[in-house]
Fold this protein.
Amino acid sequence: MINAPKGTKDILPKDSYKWQFIERTARETAAVYNADEIRTPTFEHTEVFQRGVGETTDIVNKEMYTFLDKGGRSITLKPEGTAGVARAFVENGMQSTALPVKMYYITQCFRYERPQAGRLREFHQFGVEFIGSFEPSTDAEVILLAKSFLDKLGIKDISLRINSIGCKKCRAGYQTALKNYLSEKRDGLCELCKERLGKNPMRVLDCKNKECASIMAGAPLITDYICDECRSHLEKTTKLLESAGVKFVIDPKIVRGLDYYTRTVFEFVSENIGAQGTVLGGGRYDGLISQFGGTEVPGIGFAAGLERLLLVMENTGVVIPEKRSVKIYFAPMGEKESERAFALAQTLRGLKIACDTDHMKRGIKSQFKYADKIGAEYVGVIGSDEYERGTVKIKNMADGSEREVGDEDIIKFLNGEI
C-alpha cells in the first residue's frame, strides 16, 4: 500500500464541509471589505522567496521545497502567499490601477518542517493583502477584517497583540543595540542563532530554543528605538482600533518571522492549540514591492492557516454547520422503476434540489439504510404500483410519516406547498 507523504493529509468527503465553511466565511468577509480574489502559481522562481521572504529566515534556509526543473531553473513550491502576490502586483502593472488594491487568496503552501498539531508540510492559508496605502487606517482595517473573520468562525478566547518594528531608518539603531547585547552572550546561543547574529540579529527573536529564549528575555526592546513617525503611526492605528471597540495588547516582543515586515505587526493568539498559539498573523511591508522592481508602494496583510483554525475550533467546541443534506432519495424497486427514479432525480437537480437514487441494485431495506447514512430528509419509494399510478410514496425520515404524491406534485410537496 502506498501512503500519503509525511506531513500531508487527505481531506475526506465527510470532513470537507468544515473546510468549505471556513473558505466560505473567508470569501464573504473579504467581500464586505471590497477585497477581490487573486490566484498565484503553486510554484515560483526561487528568487521570489529569497527576495521577498528573506535569505536569513528559517523558511528560506531550512523549509522550502526547492528543485531544478527540466530546464535547469530553480523552482520553489509556495511556502507563503505574500511574496507571490507582490510579484504578481508588479509584473501585471497593478501599481498603475486605482489604489489601494485589496486582494485575498485561499491557497496551498508547502514547508519542510516537523509535522505537529495544526502544522503540516502541505497546508492551506487564507491571506489578505492591501497594497497602496501608507495610512494607519489601512492597518486598522486589515486587523478589523481579520477579527471579523475569526468572529464569524465562532472562535472565542483569542487576544490581539500588536507592535511596531519600525522602518529602515530607526530599525538600524535597534539592530546595533541588539547585536551588541547578543554578542556578549554569543556562547549561550544555538548554532543557528550564532549565524543569524552576523546576518540579521532580529531573527534571533524568533528562535524557539529555550536557551536562546532565555537570553532574549533581557534583550533591548524595539519600541524603545522606533522613530517619532513610526510611533505616531502605531498610535493612530491603535486609536482607530479602540474607536472600533477592539481590545489589544502592545507586545514589544512581536516581530513576525519574515524579513519583509515594517512598522505594524500583529498576531491573534489562542490558548487552545498548545505551544503553537498564533492562529493569524500579519503586518505592514512597505519595502516589499520595490524588491520586485516596482515603485515604493506600501502594503499590509495577514495570513491564517486553515488547519490551525480547525484545530482551535475543535478544541473550543465551535459547531460547524454540517453540509446540506440530500432533500430526497428515490428508492426504486425494479429496472423500469430505476429509470423513472433516475429521470425524476435529474429533473429535481435541474431545479437545484439535492437528491440521489440507487446505483447499486440494493433491496428496499438496504436503500433505506443508505438514505439514512447520507442524511436524506425524505425517501421516495417507487414500486410497481407507484410506477403504474405515476406516483411516489414519500416517507419523512424524521417522523416516519408517509404520503403518496404524483410526479407533478413532488416539487410542491418538498417546498411545503401541499
